[in-house]
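Quick one:
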Amino acid sequence: MITRNFFLFLSQNKFMKGRAMKWGPKFGAKSVIAGETIQEAIDTVRKLNEKGLSATVDHLGEFVYSREEAIESADYCIRTLEAISEAGVDCNLSLKLTQLGLDVDRELCLSNMKRILEVAKADNNFVRIDMEDYSHLDATLSLLAELRESYDNVGTAIQGYLFRASEDIDKLKGMNLRLIKGAYKESPAHAYQKQEDVDRNYVSIIKQHMLNGSYAAVATHDHNVIAEIKKFAAENDIPVDKFEFQMLYGFRTDMQADIRSEGYKMRVYVPFGNDWYGYFMRRLAERPQNVAFAVRGLLSK
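Output:
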């Protein structure tokens, strides 16, 4: 049986990444990546909007190691925000701090984020900082806290598989947070390893954040979790404008439409760009059913 750990290993394997990039996104990824250019991403978002779905776009890439690459990534984020504004689509921006130089120079990363947030603020838009692996967690939250002193149009994600998730939720009370289970391989010293423990803690932090009166972006494809959160919101008189559901582009599209038809806000996470390999491998790791996408991609070549 192909395991989660196997795909997480592949996500960081340089040889396999090189081979996959030569094959191109037909290796299953074309089903879950909205093309390689900003325009392709905008076209995808427009089609989602026509179905009543909101979106957030993410230019794929992570772990840059030079100032030039970090500045180039920030410039690309700004061009993406400008394209969103020009197109008039319902869409936020998601990004990773390692793209913007977090591993190069914290002040460079901070400067890049401020440039991005200024553009987003001018267009009344919102920027989500994606949470990365545990080694970047404290640095991400520290930089976020500094940004929040000047900007209220920025939030992040909290991963339900981490032991400290509940503590972080309390510290971030009042912030718009994306709540996720987590997609990286983390040490037993920091994260739950059994799926039932992850699921239990995940639902717990969602409820915790909602009861705090904070905006919750519930990012899951788990129909059991979705049903439980709908019931919890109703029982606790939490209005539908205080939370939303989020799913990945290309996954459970029928359920996305059903959730929207029930009157809930449904936001689709739309990745794009040519650095798709690591993202795609982590999606395969999350759910064994996702392997079917890769098989169909190979058969369609």
